[in-house]
Amino acid sequence: MPDDVPLEEPPRRMRALIWSGRSTDPSGPHVWHSLRGWEVLLAVATLVPVAFIVPGDLPVTEKILFAGLMAAILPVYFLFGRSAILTEDRRRGAVYLAVLVVLFTPAAFIEPSAAFALFGLCPQCFMVFPAKPAVGVVIALNAGPVVRFLVENQGDTFNFLSVSTIVIFFSAVFGIWMERIMRQSEERAALIAELEAQRAEVSRLSAERGALAERERLAGEIHDTLAQGFTSIIMLIQAAEAQSDPARHLSLAVQTARENLAEARALIAALSPAPLDGSTLDEALVRLADRLREETGIATAFSLHGESRPLPPPTEVVLLRAAQEALANVRKHAAAGRVEVSASYGPETVALEIRDDGRGFDPAAAEGYGLRGMRARVEQVGGTLTLTSSPAGGTTLEAVLPSEQPDQGA
Question: Rounded to whole angstroms, how far apart are CA atoms 396 and 41?
Fold first, then answer.
């Protein structure tokens, strides 16, 4: 994976997405992603005291002032608080919370029922600030009701202070807990995003590797079939041009062209190789040897050792392609007088050997695509390829493959 692929967003951006309810998860936001619940709580907590105080016995002036102070909390939230929460603007958030304290404190002095609004106001503190400064703002919000009670000395002081302490304590505990949950949620969201990005990258790389393997396979198929067929056609036409009676060579060229067409159709339809259709591997090898004799006049012989038996299709294809490539090299390079093709069936292996008496070469210097592709094919099915050659001693190619393919599900 490239080092410059971004796997996660900056924390600020992540928190903004979480609080705003916009998630990178296409299945929808998680339960902690939305502000709507907190906004509904804030609206209910501030408007319920107003609904109860309006029909009460307070003077009209105090009712209007109380209702105005409590109702002003909502516009302040939407003008300052919401944007401060979404952008994590601490300075703007501090102004927002200061205005809340300024609005709520006189309302609490006017009517004790204003304390109900603390259920909606306290969570706002933890949404704007980290836990410790948020607790300080919670204490400031609770100071108004406490001072009013102490000044007027109404009721049971111990019970009131106990309730206020419990409110502050549980606000702090809940706020700290909520902050930790949010932090874990952010980390998990970032981890999920990273895992999804890595999974997409793995999927992309797997697709590219599969496409590359398929291209290599097709390249080998085309080289071993169509390219060799075209080479044979060209050689036969050139031989026909040099003869007074070109009929024989032209007939072979036409036959080769037809077989090439069959190979092309087999490749397109993803069928088994045309030379094996309706015949055994041994019969296909005999035909290849006969074709070489007909095209070049080289003496060819085929021998069978052991008891012939059906082989797995991948094994037959590899052996057939190896024979095609080896005989094509004999035709083009060896200038041989005789070629021997043999198939040997052992208890657990099958071997193909092709030997010619032509001019050899240095195997270490051979860098052609055909030999590389042949070796790769053999090794893919668990076999070995041995090439022996010398400038004056001809060439021997031996491919040994397991006669049974390993269980792919093991």
Answer: 88
Residue 298 has phi, psi (to 5 degrees) of -70, 135
> What per-residue confidence (pLDDT) applies to 344?
93
Provide φ and ψ at 270, rounded to 5°. 55, 40
Q: Which residues pair with 385 in a beta bridge?
A: 399
The region, left, alpha or beta by phi > 0 then psi within -120 to 50, assigned to residue 335 is left
For residue 111, the model assigns a pLDDT of 84
Side-chain half-sphere of 248: how many Cα atoms within 13 Å?
Answer: 10
For the chain, the farthest-separated pair of C-alpha atoms sits apart, in whole angstroms, at 132
User: Which residue bears the tokens 């009209």?
Assistant: 60
Based on DSSP, count helices (H) and strands (E) in the chain, helices before strands: 14, 5
The pLDDT of residue 210: 66
Q: Give Cα 30 distance to the centre of its chain.
A: 23
* End-to-end CA gap in the chain: 30
Q: Which residues contact 134 (CB under 8 A, 6 or more apart)?
A: 125, 126, 128, 175
The string of DSSP letters for 323-335 reads HHHHHHHIIIII-
Q: What is the 3-state secondary structure (H, E, C) of 217-246?
A: HHHHHHHHHHHHHHHHHHHHHHHHHCCCCC
Half-sphere exposure of residue 219: CA atoms within 13 angstroms, side-chain side? 13
pLDDT, position 366 = 62
- The segments of the chain whose pLDDT lies below 70 read 1-34, 149-168, 170-172, 174-175, 178, 207, 210-211, 214, 217-227, 244, 264-278, 365-369, 405-410
pTM for the model stands at 0.41
Q: Is 174 helix (H, G, I), strand (E, B) or coil?
A: helix
Residue 350: name the closest of 389, 320, 395, 388 by CA.
320
Pairing of strands 338-345, 299-305: parallel
